[in-house]
Specification:
Helix content: 55-70%
Radius of gyration: 10 Å
Strand content: under 5%
Number of domains: 1
């Protein structure tokens, strides 16, 4: 079974709110460089390797990785 990360899990690990993470993952907001780094490090600690560049410029790739879409 593929690992999936929920917004709540990612929020707890990153210190951001679930709503803000939802806006980033749906493409409504683009994260700053600092926020993208925080999210990338948080997903890594949760077991899925992502890059801050992907959080900033390729959010569909991140969604596929953390949601298994």
């Amino acid at each position: 079974m593929e690992k999936k990360i929920t917004n709540i899990e990612l929020a707890k690990e990153s210190g951001l709110t679930p709503a803000y993470i939802s806006f980033i993952l749906t493409g409504k907001y683009s994260p700053s460089k600092k926020t993208a780094i925080v999210l990338s490090e948080a997903t890594g600690r949760l077991g899925i390797k992502t890059s801050s560049i992907d959080f900033m410029f390729n959010i569909s790739k991140v969604r596929k990785l953390i949601r298994g879409e």
